[in-house]
Every structure is written in C-alpha cells, then in structure tokens.
Amino acid sequence: MITYEQLRHNAEIKTYIEGADAALAALGYTEHSFAHVTKVSQIASYILTKMNADSHAVELAKIAAYLHDIGNLVNRVDHSQSGAVMAFRILRSMDMDAADVATIVSAIGNHDEGTGVPINDISAALILADKSDVRRSRVRNTDISSFDIHDRVNYSVTDANLEISNDKTEITLMLTIDTEYGSVMDYFEIFLGRMVLCRKAAEKLGLRFRLRINGQSLL
Question: What is the C-alpha to C-alpha distance for residues 73 and 130, in angstroms, rounded to an integer?
Fold first, then answer.
C-alpha cells in the first residue's frame, strides 16, 4: 500500500502543494501549505482512531487530508473537484489499489462546503479536520489595519481544539477568540456553511457536533 509517509516525501506532490499555496497567496487567501495539510492529516487521524477505525482507514484519511487542497493549483473555484482528479492521476501512477484511490478521490471531491457531502467516514473525518483548522498563524497579511473579514476571523482565533467525548457521542470544536480582532458574529458570517457541513459530517460518524467559543456553547 502507498503510505502517508511516502507521499510526504514525494517531490512531485510537494511541488503541487507549494504551487497551490502560492496561487492562494496571490489571491490573498490564508495559508494552505504544509502546515495546514499536515495538521488536517493529524486531526483526521485523531478522529478515526478515536472512533475505533482500522489502521487502513486512518491511513487513507491521512492521505486524503494531505492531498485535499492541491486543486487550488488549478483554480480556487471548484478546487475540490480538480484536486480529486489530480489525486486520481497521481495515485494511479503510483499503482495504488483502485478501491483505495476511489475512497481518497471521493473524500477530496467532497470536502468543500460549496458542494461537499460526507459520503463515508473518511470524507467526514476530512471535512471536520479541515474546517477546524482556524488559527492566527494562517493569516499572511501583516497589516492589521487592512484585514478583511477572513483575516480578522482567523487572526482572532488564538486557540482551536477538536475533541471527541469519551463516550463517543459528541465532537466539539472549542475556539478561543480575541474579540479585539474579530467577533463571534464575524465567525458565523463566514463559517456558517462550514459549521453546517461539520454537523452533517459528525452525524455520518454517529456524533453530535458542538461548537464552543470562549467557553460558551453555541451549537
């Protein structure tokens, strides 16, 4: 089986991730490079491991997470679909098993809130992991006075953790927001669609999605 570690050290894939992030930088978007995809891989692994998924499923989720944003190299619009096609070509050229390719490609193609649907546990884990990576260090703009709402919201988040309850009934995204830079209303203005998709993803895993901001339960 092709492994996550193999992909992390693949020069071709590194080039695509760097190119995709450079394209988003040119558009003024937050960081989508190795820090993001590695963190999403780690969170997806945590989710499925906590839910007692087998090691093979965990590995597929980590791979899907690592590749999930390469479609931004083509265009931000429909990047989940273009990324899925790119991942298909890459993984098949590496002789990955067709069933594994199918699982990864469908997860990547369904990770974005515009068109995504949590069709299986791996896609659900990817959605939750991706949408929970909100943090100050992803903001590229160093001029606070020129922040747009996306900059404000990401910069305002000083801590973010996704946690599954011990009884495996709830998954909670816990955020600490510095309201000097962004408000809770700002967060909902740009992330409501993402939170709805997270709720659906959690339900796919048999969990209830909860959101807690500054110690207050909002969902």
Answer: 18
Tell me the C-alpha to C-alpha distance, in Å, between residue 19 and each of 13, 38, 133, 160, 200.
10, 16, 20, 27, 31
Q: How confident is the model at residue 149 (pLDDT cuts 50, 70, 90)?
A: confident
- At 82-116, the pLDDT tens digits run 999 999 999 999 999 999 999 999 999 999 988 99
With 0-12 / 13-18 / 19 or more C-beta atoms within 10 angstroms meaning exposed / middle / buried, residue 35 is middle
pLDDT digits over 114-145, tens only? Answer: 899 999 999 999 999 999 999 999 999 988 98
Sign of the four-CA dihedral 179, 184, 189, 195: positive
Side chain identity, residue 138: R
For the record, the structure tokens of 29 come out as 């978007």
pLDDT for res 91: 97
Q: Which CATH number fits domain 4-217: 3.40.50, 1.10.3210, 3.30.1490, 3.40.720?
A: 1.10.3210
